[in-house]
Design goal:
heterodimer, A: about 350 residues, 10-stranded antiparallel β-barrel, globular, B: alpha+beta, 7-stranded antiparallel β-sheet, about 45% helix
């Protein structure tokens, strides 16, 4: 018996696992509009429930090896967080209206608060994501976050944005290397060169597009043509940027005996973006939730996990439940790094 | 909660102990009123119902029934019978389950979509512009001064605005005309500034600073035309359009990001497209308001309205003829024949109502919208690319001949005429119709009232244009 068991464990059996998404565009649209309507009727209070339920819909419809993910955040704590952040923002807004110095001060305050919001939001979101009864988590601290933001941000600042690829790469590394599932921390192995390549291609495209755009816009006089033309030019490059950064992000990710792989294609996402844009414009925005599910479905469909050994994860220790204040800030500020 | 189950219920589920990421297949058993039994390999647990918490349900999926056990363990069942049994038997009333019932109701969802469209539509088209106007009116002048001065400074440091190179004489004469205008508006602190920019443009800042570029002054040639444009910009200051736009666009942005916060960034960008349309729509309203102001002031000071129309036409022409030199004024101030016509002829905000005809109202139409049969500059017999087509400003409706109306006769009349240098049709003649001559008189009378933007040859209003058109007389049912 013992020998047999050893034989089963010893050779590192490589298995490829695919993630699947069972959500449905129509159902999500219904949930989304009901959420929005209730949020309007409750003057925003329902937004916390709406966030939890919409996230639950997506998490619970994401399957790996016969089990689904879940989102277990308490709507009430999100509501508290959002209320506090909204109050702070209103305060800053009033200050801005009163004097120029106050507006500069509040701008600096928001700027300085950004890393704090980043780490708190990440702690909250990962802590409340579960799979097979175990929580994910984030072990980055506030102090480390400020250090990372400084190291990552200074080159970008001094090169007037040229080094923003480094900022993106370094923060993604920080976000992922300090993430954990159960008691195991993830590691991330994508090189900064990959991000430099993506940013170079994108920059080159914008240069060319800007040039042709200025030629074309001077040739036409019809109002709105510039906006629409610019938007159409933006579609393929957004698809490219999104696909390559997400592929690069997922591909370097390892946790215990698992390697993540992602095979999104620019052309496919471009097709989704294009049809989304047409549908959203034709329906005057009604197709927005529909378009969201289509992109989520594509992202998850392209995700694969390679397993080298099958040792179960154990519950992480010392996981305090983080407060939702930072999460509220991230929601209101529209901060989304797109790393799930 | 309402109907306890009659007999024992069981089904398969997956069990997670909360300590390890291992998925166990288990059997759930639930007796009426009794405890929940969990049985599987190496697992045999019994929990009284009052200790269990049922996870929230979202949408339609039954497989999400999660039972949380106080040890941190949980069971997840795809069995809908088990779910129903659990939600009936557990004592805790879960108000969030009502949410799921709402999510499953088709009627409520249709109502929700309707409510969203109604509220957001009203907010974006009426609510925000109205509030922006109110807030702009309440905003203290110190704030608008702050905004304007920092804006100007930023544009100066960024080398968007360079010092003017206009001759002093020209500037002095314009400044004195502007002074006169400013004295008629004592409540505004108006100031005129000249800058050298690559484009012909004029714009107003919220605090009353009006900026004109050298190029625009040179392009418009006379002071009268420049003053016409200045009146328009003062109109923007008077109605506080600058502040209004700033408040409006930031309020719209806040609203959209709040609603669309959970969507991907790019999807949010898609939603920006209708917003851009709305914004340009609102700004068109502001242009008309500024036009109206300019019109009133020009009438009051005895400046012919034509000066404004000329100025706009000149700006239009340079921007469409010279590729590469873009005039911003044109982009943000769309010059339409309608706008010009409104400026010349009447009040843009309250157009004259059309006369009503009871029973079978007559309809008229232009099947070939006044296609020119030939176009020749006055004095020259050749057609050249330098000719600018006359654009119709106004086409008076013909009156339906009373006897034809009574007899319910329909038909048409073909009319030929020449648009002269002033934009008026002359040499009007009927060249055919059906029934013969019946509608000619009415058609001729109508065409006589029409006005066109004067046809232009090499930028000069010296051309005439021959036109042919068919005017149809139809009765609506």
């Amino acid at each position: 018996m013992e020998e047999q068991e050893q034989k089963e464990v010893d050779p590192p059996k490589r298995t490829t696992l695919a993630l699947s998404f069972t959500g449905n565009e129509f159902e999500y649209t219904r949930l989304w509009f009901l959420s929005l309507a209730l949020t309007i009727l409750t003057l925003g209070a329902y937004s916390a429930w709406s966030k939890v339920r919409l996230k639950q819909y997506i998490h619970r419809n994401t399957w790996l090896e016969g089990d689904n993910f879940d989102y277990v955040a308490e709507p009430l704590s999100i509501l508290r967080g959002r209320a506090v952040v909204a109050l702070i923002l209103v305060g800053l807004w009033v200050a801005e209206a009163i004097s120029l110095y106050a507006s500069i001060l509040s701008f600096v305050a928001l700027f300085l608060a950004f890393p704090w919001v980043f780490v708190k939001a990440r702690q909250f979101e990962l802590h409340n994501t579960t799979y097979r009864g175990l929580r994910f988590g984030y072990v980055g601290s506030v102090g480390k976050t400020y250090r990372e933001f400084t190291i990552a941000g200074l080159p970008a600042l001094f090169t007037l944005g040229l080094a923003s690829f480094y900022f993106h790469w370094r923060l993604t590394a920080y976000a992922l290397n300090f993430s954990r599932y159960g008691n195991v921390r993830a590691t991330w192995h994508t090189s900064a060169g990959t991000f430099l390549g993506i940013y170079s291609v994108t920059g080159l495209y914008f240069g060319l597009a800007g040039f042709t755009g200025s030629l074309l816009s001077s040739a036409t006089d019809v109002p709105l043509v510039e906006e629409i033309f610019g938007y159409v030019l933006l579609l393929p490059i957004s698809a490219y940027f999104r696909v390559s950064t997400q592929n690069a992000t997922y591909r370097g990710l390892r946790i215990a005996g698992y390697c993540v792989h992602s095979e999104q294609r620019t052309l496919a996402l471009f097709g989704i973006y294009l049809t989304n844009a047409i549908a959203v414009v034709l329906t005057l925005g009604l197709a927005l939730p529909w378009s969201k599910i289509r992109t989520v479905r594509y992202r998850i469909k392209c995700l694969k996990l390679k397993r080298f050994n099958n040792v179960p994860f154990e519950r992480g220790t010392g996981s305090l439940s983080p407060d939702a204040l930072g999460s509220g800030g991230a929601d209101i500020g529209g901060l989304d790094l797109g790393i799930g | 909660m309402s109907n306890p189950i009659a007999s024992m219920v069981q089904g398969t589920a997956r069990y997670f102990d909360g300590q390890r990421s291992t998925s166990h297949v288990v059997q759930l058993k639930l007796e009426p009123g009794g405890p929940l039994e969990v049985q599987g390999d190496e697992i045999a647990l019994t929990w009284p119902l009052r200790d269990l918490a049922l996870g929230t349900q979202v949408g339609f999926e039954a497989s999400w029934t999660v039972v949380h056990i106080p040890t941190g363990a949980s069971c997840q069942s795809a069995n809908s019978v088990v779910r129903r049994a659990l939600s009936c038997e557990s004592k805790q009333p879960h108000w969030e389950n009502n949410l799921q019932r709402m999510e499953q109701s088709g009627g409520i969802c249709v109502g929700a979509v309707g409510l969203c469209i109604a509220v957001l539509g009203t907010l974006l088209t009426v609510g925000i512009p109205y509030m922006a106007g109110q807030i702009a009116a309440l905003t203290p002048t110190s704030v608008s001064e702050n905004i304007s001065q920092s804006l100007l400074q930023a544009m100066e440091t960024a080398d968007i605005l360079s010092p003017t190179e206009l001759p002093l004489v020209r500037r002095r004469s314009l400044l004195s005309r502007f002074e006169q205008a400013a004295q008629s508006q004592p409540e505004l602190s108006l100031e005129l500034r000249f800058y050298k920019v690559g484009v012909a443009n004029a714009f107003a800042l919220p605090d009353g600073t009006v900026v004109v570029t050298d190029k625009l002054v040179k392009l418009l040639e006379t002071d009268d035309r420049a003053v016409a444009v200045l009146w328009h910009e003062i109109g923007h200051v008077k109605h506080r359009h600058g502040l209004e736009s700033v408040i409006e666009s930031s309020a719209t942005a806040v609203l959209l990001t709040t609603i669309l916060g959970d969507l991907e960034q790019f999807t949010v960008l898609t939603a920006g497209l209708p917003a851009v349309y709305l914004e340009s729509n609102n700004s068109r309203g502001q242009e008309l308001q500024a036009d109206k102001f300019a019109q009133l002031q020009m009438d009051a000071t005895g400046l012919p309205r034509e000066r404004f129309v000329e100025a706009l036409s000149m700006i239009t022409e340079t921007s469409s003829s010279k590729a590469g030199s873009k005039t911003n004024f044109r982009a943000s101030h769309p010059v339409t024949p309608l706008r010009l016509k409104m400026f010349i002829e009447g009040s843009p905000l309250d157009p004259e109502p059309l006369p009503e005809v009871r029973h079978a109202p007559p309809r008229w139409s232009l099947p070939y919208p006044s296609q020119p049969s030939s176009l020749c500059p006055a004095g020259e017999a050749q057609v050249s690319a330098d000719l600018v087509e006359p654009l119709p400003w106004e086409r008076q409706q013909p009156t339906y001949p009373a006897d034809a109306h009574r007899e319910e006769i329909q038909g048409w009349s073909d009319v030929r005429y020449v648009v002269d240098q002033t934009g008026r049709p002359c040499n009007i003649e009927a060249i055919g119709g059906s029934p013969q001559h019946l509608f000619d008189e009415a058609a001729l009378a109508a065409v006589k009232q029409w006005t066109y933007q004067p046809p232009r040859y090499k930028g000069q209003a010296t051309a005439v244009s021959r036109q042919e058109t068919r005017i149809s007389f139809e009765l609506r049912d």
